[in-house]
Design brief:
The complex is a heterodimer. Chain A has a domain at about 30-250. In chain A, about 70% of the residues lie in helices and about 0% in strands. Chain A contains 15 helices and 4 strands. In chain A, strand 2 and strand 3 form a beta hairpin. Chain B has one domain (about 1-220). Chain B has 11 helices and 2 strands, in the order H-H-H-H-E-E-H-H-H-H-H-H-H. Classes of the chains: A mainly alpha, B mainly alpha.
């Protein structure tokens, strides 16, 4: 058990709360830096995907986990980022410039989606984002002069001012650096007044409004930031896959992103990473388990959907804070070892809050 | 003539949207939760009907009746086991839960022997019949969809207006707590509503099956019923029907007059326009949350 004695105000602003965190996160970073040389090409590639999905998850986390706005169309931002990156790099733009433009364009699209979002909430917002996702997918499929339509578009290797980051290890480093920057950015955002406004809106729109938070402005900002981050992930995704087509950015991808943040743990930065690890490793675990299952189940096309659905339902019903919540419980258990009590994290049963008051 | 023909085919598809949207709205009115698995319930209903005909050689009518009853029971069971424990949590939770439910249903159906990932033809007695009405062509499938939807709407209307159960449901959807104090068994009613909406979804599935075949992914049509429910105003039963018809007809016209590709997104364009112009839908009431 660690007791934190605050002796200066500077301690309040530090990202790492104590030496232990510095040590463990430093170790994690060192492990990630060493990974390409230790893990071999296959796992490096998987790790790259985990990091890319973690960035996308962070983007959705800002919107759904921290601002409390549900989006079922976030794959469209992934698509906007990916296509912008693909088109710009094929016109000879350097990688960083294209990445920034992809993020910017994605944010602009996010603002457009955010506009109806200012007037609607709850299920209406979900339907609006769903509708938007379908429209963007259709645009990507039909705007053939730019996107290549349903036959897809191949993407060049990233070129960072003359340095070709096309190799697996080099690209992994690029993704790792981007992921690190985005994570730090999100962490800093969340402890700024903007981030606190987001959280206030999530917890209660009305009290946030009464405290002087301009709902429209902050919701739009949340949409834009979230879209920008997901756009960055999309740009990296395009480079990783080297080939993009509209169906990669359809409703399934949007649902996968939602699954990622919910299973990882809504409202936590760790959750985005846990969720990304889940999303990437689960299909492989399922593939491994296939040989053990009876063929009627193991060979069925819907096995993955079944497992994902079951995990999602289990998380929602039994562990609403997701994998991160489970991790916190285990950690607390170990920290307090003999004195941990079962009821420490008991979920409060909220009273049914009605939205309908006449 | 062309326009009337388009209207009919649009209305037929619109009725399917309307039936699925009715399922959403019934549940939303009763429990303020949204069932994202409504399309999958429809798919499951159609599959159950198909399997009953395949395995037990039941005639279509009996298979339809048994599957509607069975799915209604399944809906009630679902409410009891899965939805009730998490009521009171934010709306987000139930949305995610039902999305998970949809995944599971789709996964399980691919494992059913006799369904798998193939498309199957539901053998209905009226298959392929065409009625000629003074230059208009109305296939029996479309006619049955429109006719049964009308009958079902009438039945629902009568139930909500004139039976004790319907009135109790209305009361509970207006104010659960007050209804509970008046002696209405709100929890049991919620179960009944889930059963009812699963039954309606099954009817939609059985009606749609002759047109689109029975398939694992036929439930994705439920995603177009959301726009229908929103256009009508989420929380209004007549709105759901009108919204479904609007979406179906707009889609039919967009498919005919606009370039390729517009048909698939017409529903979503309409709903976005609706949300910008009139966020509460055609029949929705304006409600503000009070502090």
């Amino acid at each position: 058990m660690r007791f934190l004695f605050k002796t200066s105000y500077a301690q309040d602003w530090r990202l790492a709360r104590h030496g232990g965190q510095v040590f463990w996160y430093g170790l994690l970073l060192a492990a990630l830096l060493a990974a390409p040389w230790v893990a071999g090409p296959y796992w490096t590639s998987q790790l790259t995907f985990v990091l890319i999905y973690a960035i996308a998850g962070l983007g959705l986390m800002v919107l759904s986990g921290y601002t409390g706005l549900l989006s079922i169309g976030h794959a469209s931002f992934l698509g906007v980022g990916a296509y912008t990156q693909a088109v710009l790099t094929s016109h000879g733009w350097p990688f960083p410039a294209a990445l920034v433009t992809a993020a910017g364009l994605s944010a602009a699209v996010g603002v457009v989606v955010g506009l109806p979002a200012l007037r609607v909430k709850g299920i209406y917002l979900a339907v609006a984002t769903l509708a938007f996702g379908f429209i963007v997918e259709e645009v990507m499929a039909r705007w053939e002069s730019v996107t290549g339509g349903n036959s897809g578009l191949s993407v060049k290797a990233p070129d960072i001012f003359g340095f070709n980051a096309g190799g697996a290890e080099a690209f992994y480093m690029v993704v790792l650096a981007t992921c690190l920057l985005v994570t730090l950015g999100v962490l800093n955002l969340l402890r700024s007044s903007t981030g606190r406004a987001f959280i206030a809106i999530r917890d209660s729109e009305i009290s946030a409004q009464s405290m002087g938070i301009h709902l429209a402005r902050y919701k739009t900002m949340s949409f834009a930031l979230s879209a920008a981050i997901v756009g960055i992930a999309g740009a990296l995704y395009a480079h990783k896959l080297r080939f993009i087509s509209p169906e990669q950015f359809g409703i399934e991808q949007s649902l996968d992103l939602l699954l990622l943040v919910v299973v990882g743990g809504l409202g936590s930065v760790h959750g985005a990473f846990f969720g990304a690890i889940f999303l990437i490793t689960m299909p492989q675990l399922i593939a491994m388990a296939k040989d053990w299952l009876p063929p009627a189940i193991g060979q069925a096309a819907g096995l993955q959907a079944l497992v994902f659905g079951a995990v999602l339902m289990a998380v929602v019903m039994f562990e609403p804070t997701g994998l991160y919540g489970r991790w916190v419980k285990w950690r607390t258990y170990l920290e307090l070892f003999p004195t941990y009590r079962r009821g420490m994290f008991r979920r409060q049963r909220a009273f049914q809050k009605s939205e309908r008051v006449r | 003539m062309e326009i009337v023909q388009l209207l009919i085919s649009g209305a037929a598809l619109g009725c399917i949207y309307a039936l699925i949207a009715l399922g959403f709205v019934l549940i939303y009115k009763a429990t303020e939760t949204v069932n994202f698995a409504q399309g999958e319930m429809m798919m499951l209903g159609a599959c159950v009907g198909y399997l009953l005909m395949l395995w037990f050689k039941l005639p279509f009518i009996w298979a339809a009746l048994v599957s509607v009853a069975g799915m209604a029971g399944f809906g009630m069971l679902l409410e009891r086991t899965v939805i009730r424990p998490i009521l009171g949590q934010p709306q987000f939770t139930v949305v995610m839960l039902t999305i998970g439910l949809g995944y599971i249903t789709r996964g399980l159906v691919t494992m059913l022997p006799g369904i798998g990932t193939d498309t199957h033809v539901l053998d209905v007695p009226y298959k392929g019949e065409v009625w000629n009405l003074g230059g208009l062509v109305l296939s029996a499938e479309q006619g049955s969809i429109i006719g049964l939807t009308l009958v079902l709407c009438l039945l629902l209307y009568l139930m909500f207006k004139h039976t004790k159960l319907g009135v109790a449901m209305q009361a509970s959807s207006q104010n659960q707590l007050a209804a509970y104090y008046m002696g209405i068994p709100v929890k049991r009613l919620n179960g009944v509503v889930w059963g009812l909406s699963a039954g309606v979804a099954t009817i939609a599935g059985l009606l749609l099956a002759p047109i689109t075949f029975v398939h694992v992914n036929m439930g994705f049509i439920g995603l177009k019923a959301f726009p229908a429910a929103v256009v009508g105003g989420f929380g209004s039963l007549p709105g759901a029907v009108v919204g479904g018809l609007v979406i179906g007809i707009v889609e039919a016209f967009a498919g005919f007059y606009l370039p390729e590709g517009f048909k698939d997104i017409a529903a979503y364009v309409v709903v976005l326009a609706m949300l910008v112009v009139k966020p509460n839908g055609l029949f929705g009431e304006k409600l503000r949350k009070k502090v």
